[in-house]
Amino acid sequence: MAPPKPSKKDIALALLEQGAIFVHLDPRRDKVVVPQSYRSQPELVLQFGLNMRIAIPDLEVGDEAIAGTLSFARRPFWCWIPWEAVFAIVDPNRRGAAWPEDAPADAKAAQEQKAAAPPNPKRAHLRAVPDEPPPRDPATLEGEGTCSMCSTKWPDDASSCVVCGSSREEAFVSANGAPEKDAEQEEEAAPEPPKPVELIEAPPVSGEPPSEPPPASPPKRPHLRLVKK
Q1: How far apart, in whole angstroms, are the C-alpha atoms of residue 8 and residue 28?
Q2: Which residues span the domain enclosing 153?
C-alpha cells in the first residue's frame, strides 16, 4: 500500500523553507479572497515567500488556508486562499506537487488545447529583388545546350563536341547565322585605334639657303648718259 500523499499545507511549508512558492488556484471557489478583477478567470497563480523583495509580514500557513498581504500592480491586498481551491504548489524550478482532481475543468481544457495547438508558422522574410534579371546559364545562352551541327547535348566545360568534333564557336550559332564569340575574343580582335601622326620639321638640305628671308638688295645708283643736241 502506497504511503499517503503529503497535505497541501505540508508541501507549502517544505518548499517555503527553501524559497518562494507558486500557488495555482481556482479563484472562483467559495471563500477565496483575491482582488475582484481576478475572480472570474479559471486559474490564478500567486507567489508567496519568506524573503521576497516585497515582504509579506503577515504570511500565515494554516490548516484551512494560506493567507497574507500580496502586491497587485504595487497595491497591497490581503488574500485568503482555502486549500480546497489549490490544485498545484511548485517552486521556481517547477518542483512540488499537483492535485489534478481539484483542478477546474476549463483550466484543464485550456491547457490541453494549448498543448495540442500547432506551432505558429514562421513569417515569410522579404528580400530585395534586383531590377535586372539574373543571367541565364551557359546552356540556355548557347542554343539550350545542344550542338547545332549534330544536335548532341553539349557537355559542361567542353571545348568541342564529343560526336562531331565541332568547336564551341561552330556548334553554337547566333540568330543571324554567325558563330557566337566570347566577349574576350571580340575584345582581342578589335583593332587598336591609329595613333596620331606627329609632325616633325625637316632639317634644311645642304647647299640650300636657310629658310630665312633674303637680305634686301642695295639701292641702285643713278647712271648719267650724254644726250646729243
Answers
A1: 19
A2: 138-181
pTM: 0.48
For residue 67, the SS3 value is strand
Q: Given a cut of 60, is residue 20 above it in pLDDT? A: yes
Euclidean distance between CA atoms 24 and 38, whole angstroms: 13
Note the pLDDT of residue 128: 65
Task: Write the DSSP string, 90-157.
Answer: E-TTS-EEE-GGGS-HHHHHHHHHHHHSPPPPPPPPP----SSPPPPPHHHHTGGGB-TTT-PBPPTT
Q: Report yes or no on 23 lying in a domain.
A: yes
The three grid cell numbers given for residue 135, joined into one nine-digit string: 543571367
CATH number of the CATH domain containing 30? 2.30.30.220
Residue 71 within any structural domain of the chain? yes
> Out of 111-115, 128-132, 144-148, 180-184, which region has the weakest mean confidence (pLDDT)?
180-184
Name residue 8's amino acid. K
In a domain, 42, yes or no: yes
